């Protein structure tokens, strides 16, 4: 499931990702991002992983397409989680975006929000 997290700036968009993601999750997530990009231009994204179990095959394809479509649309991406493989996601997504990408442990959530809002 992908839930929207309220932020204090229209240039920052946040999401909590839980469980295993499916195509239906992207059908609701992508329009939210596209609408915000249309009104605000480049964004900053915070993705918080909580009890996250990855993607099914269709959602993995959706995620890849989303990344390719929005290659230049984000300034910063903060990824927050508590598993080693989630930290690797931050490294793996580097070549698929022009954004500065940084991983934060869940204990550093406040630092992640500060970093995403800097500058």
What does this structure look like?
- A five-stranded mixed β-sheet has the order 1-2-3-4-5, with helices on both faces.
- The longest helix has 18 residues, at 23-40.
- The model has no long low-confidence stretch (mean pLDDT 93).
- Helix 1 (23-40) packs parallel to helix 2 (57-69).
- The chain has one domain: 3-Layer(aba) Sandwich (Rossmann fold).
- It is α/β, with parallel strands linked by helices and 119 residues long.
- The relative contact order is 0.17.
- 41% of the residues lie in helices and 34% in strands.
- The N and C termini lie far apart (31 Å).
In short:
This protein has about 120 residues and is of the alpha/beta class.
What is the topological layout?
Layout: E1 2-5, E2 12-21, H1 23-40, E3 43-55, H2 57-69, E4 74-81, H3 84-92, E5 100-105, H4 109-117
Parallel strand pairs: 2-3, 3-4, 4-5
Antiparallel strand pairs: 1-2
Helix pairs in contact: 1-2
How helix-rich are the residues, as a percent range? Answer: 40-55%
CATH superfamily: SpoIIaa-like domains
Largest beta sheet: strand ordering? 1-2-3-4-5
By helix and strand content, what is the structural category?
Answer: alpha/beta
Q: Please identify the oligomeric state.
A: single chain
Can you count the helices? 4
Which stretches are poorly predicted, pLDDT < 50 over at least 5 residues? none
Average pLDDT confidence is 93
Secondary-structure element sequence?
A: EEHEHEHEH
What keywords describe this structure?
4 helices, Rossmann fold, 119 residues, 5 strands, alpha/beta
């Amino acid at each position: 499931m992908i839930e929207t997290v309220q932020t204090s700036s229209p240039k920052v968009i946040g999401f909590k990702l839980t469980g295993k993601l499916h195509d239906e999750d992207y059908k609701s997530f992508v329009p939210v991002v596209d609408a915000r990009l249309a009104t605000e231009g480049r964004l900053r994204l915070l993705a918080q992983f909580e009890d996250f179990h990855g993607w099914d095959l269709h959602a993995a394809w959706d995620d890849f397409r989303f990344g390719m479509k929005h290659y230049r649309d984000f300034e910063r991406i903060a990824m927050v989680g508590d598993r080693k493989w989630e930290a690797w996601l931050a490294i793996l997504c580097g070549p698929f975006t022009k954004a500065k990408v940084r991983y934060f442990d869940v204990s550093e959530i406040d630092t992640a929000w500060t970093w995403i809002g800097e500058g």
